[in-house]
Amino acid sequence: MFEYAPAPESRDIVDIRPSYGLFINGEWVEPQSEARHKTVNPATEEVLAEVAWAGEADVDRAVQAAAKAFPVWSAMPGAERAKYLFRIARLIQERARELAVLETLDNGKPIRESRDVDLPLVAAHFFYYAGWADKLAYAGFGPDPRPLGVAGQVIPWNFPLLMLAWKIAPALACGNTVVLKPAETTPLTALAFADICRQADLPPGVVNIVTGAGETGAALVNHPGVDKVAFTGSTEVGRLIARSLAGTRKKLTLELGGKAANIVFEDAPLDQAVEGVVNGIFFNQGHVCCAGSRLLVQESIAADLLEALKRRLGTMRLGDPLDKNTDIGAINSAEQLAKIRELSEAGEAEGAERWSPACPIPDRGYWFPPTVFTGVAQSHRIAREEIFGPVLSVLTFRTPAEAVEKANNTPYGLSAGVWTEKGSLMLWTASRLRAGVVWSNTFNRFDPTSPFGGYKESGYGREGGRHGLEGYLAL
Ligand code: NAI
Ligand code: MG
Q1: 448: CA distance to ligand 1 center in Å?
Q2: Total domain count, the chain
Q3: Residues 6 or more apart in contact with residue 411 via CB below 8 angstroms
Q4: 211 Cα–ligand 2 center, Å
Q5: Residue span of the signal peptide, if any (predicted)?
């Protein structure tokens, strides 16, 4: 056995202010609301900074700033808007290390992931949509597609800066202006992005960032000056928003939960499939809307696959997210940890068998070991509800038809995975899965050119690719 020496990334590279105001009209402003909130490092429970919780008057001020900036920004030739977006993309690349450390501190995800996945994708999204800004007339939406106006955008805590990029890059490329509300537990990279907008000399009011919790989000999406709402988060809140926007002129896109099936057929290369299953559910502690949280494995290979999976999980390293060797970081919040615990206990109570590798848990912070449930029935809560944590539910099947039926037996439909060596079986299966994204012999692969979005209770509208422009244009 080799021992790992600690390989911590330095946190000195980030400069966190003790307290933050709101970013409105290109400036830091003090909120009218006196409510403030401390954001903590979930790996240590250390307070990182205090942020404002914007009230209705603050949200109104931000929407007014965005509305005032809209005529200027939307009238600018696309090639000019593109210059700003390219500049932002390059600044993100230049500051990638700093932003990755900041993301890891505020979110708890391993530095290896924020450095190698989140940040490269954030920059790639801005580069990609910068390229569309002067080509909108050729995007297939008519010769002169027009922007909508002010976009109110609400994002979750699992990929804070990446979700910001998914929302802001296409909105700006199309000529809209933006008010964005980051999640309450992970505001810091959005606030750093505000500084990047200033560095890029973005005209004031084009991007506004208001921090706060659900009430701030509700004030934003319900503001009459907002023309488009884009939301990523829970199905529960997505439903609330859809209800309150029904009958208004606002255009809405929703990216909600998931309960993806990762289907492994008996002819799949076993070791490769195990890596895919691990990446599918333990990437980002399973805080992934498209996580492969239901493993559907063909009965003939179930025992072998589970043995290999358990062996592999025994090598996973849980702990300090800033350590470059860490595979599994901290759970983002005490609330999320409580939810994962509650659902895991329900799994045991309903009769599934629970397993975790021997795994030391740090004394402070929010942690949950990688967990596998076998003997799971389709009716169990752990097979139906989004756990949003490092918990895998294993079910078996005998025939491809049974695999498809079980995979589709969910109110969600965001993603799925298919592992097989046979191209014909892969295509047969993929064409029958009711999921927005189907990966084959890989999982959790993202690219700005590829549209992403759901069926059924996973939401509607697409983000990414040419399709992602549609939500930000008046068609
Ligand atoms: P959430 O849906 O409450 O929060 C997402 C964002 O919406 C946050 O910025 C929040 O402040 C905002 N928000 C909350 N209530 C709002 C309202 N009434 N109007 C407008 N904005 C509002 O998600 P939460 O509570 O953080 O997580 C609960 C569960 O939701 C998780 O356990 C997970 O299962 C699921 N979830 C799914 C995500 C996904 O990407 N599909 C992301 C985050 C959570
Ligand atoms: Mg909530």
Answers
A1: 23
A2: 2
A3: 259, 384, 456, 457
A4: 15
A5: none
Q: Which atom of ligand 1 is nearest to the CA of 213?
A: 11
Ligand nearest to the CA of 234: 1
Report field, pTM of the whole predicted structure over 0.90: yes
454: left (phi over 0), alpha (psi -120 to 50) or beta: beta
- Does some domain include residue 9? no
What is the enclosing helix (H) or strand (E) of 424? helix 423-430
255 catalytically annotated: yes
- Residues 138, 283, single domain; the answer is no
User: Is the Cβ atom of 336 under 6 angstroms away from ligand 1?
Assistant: yes
Beta-carbon contacts of 325 under 8 Å, excluding residues fewer than 6 positions away, are 4, 6, 7, 112, 317
The rounded distance, in Å, linking the Cα atoms of 149 and 92 is: 26
Same domain, 201 and 65: yes
- The domain that holds 53 is classified in CATH as 3.40.605.10
Per-residue pLDDT of the chain (475 residues; tens, 9 = 90+): 678 899 999 999 999 999 999 999 999 999 999 999 999 999 999 999 999 999 999 999 999 999 999 999 999 999 999 999 999 999 999 999 999 999 999 999 999 999 999 999 999 999 999 999 999 999 999 999 999 999 999 999 999 999 999 999 999 999 999 999 999 999 999 999 999 999 999 999 999 999 999 999 999 999 999 999 999 999 999 999 999 999 999 999 999 999 999 999 999 999 999 999 999 999 999 999 999 999 999 999 999 999 999 999 999 999 999 999 999 999 999 999 999 999 999 999 999 999 999 999 999 999 999 999 999 999 999 999 999 999 999 999 999 999 999 999 999 999 999 999 999 999 999 999 999 999 999 999 999 999 999 999 999 999 999 999 999 999 8
| Ligand 1 pocket residue status of 37, Cβ below 6 Å | no
Domain annotation covers residue 281: yes
* Residues 291 and 406 reside in one and the same domain: yes
> How many whole angstroms from 65 Cα to the centroid of ligand 2?
27
Residue in the structure block whose two tokens are 């750093």: 192
> Could you tell me if residue 5 is inside a domain?
no
In 196-239, at which residue ranges do the beta strands (DSSP E only) sit?
207-209, 228-232
Which residue range(s) make up the domain with 76?
19-256+455-474
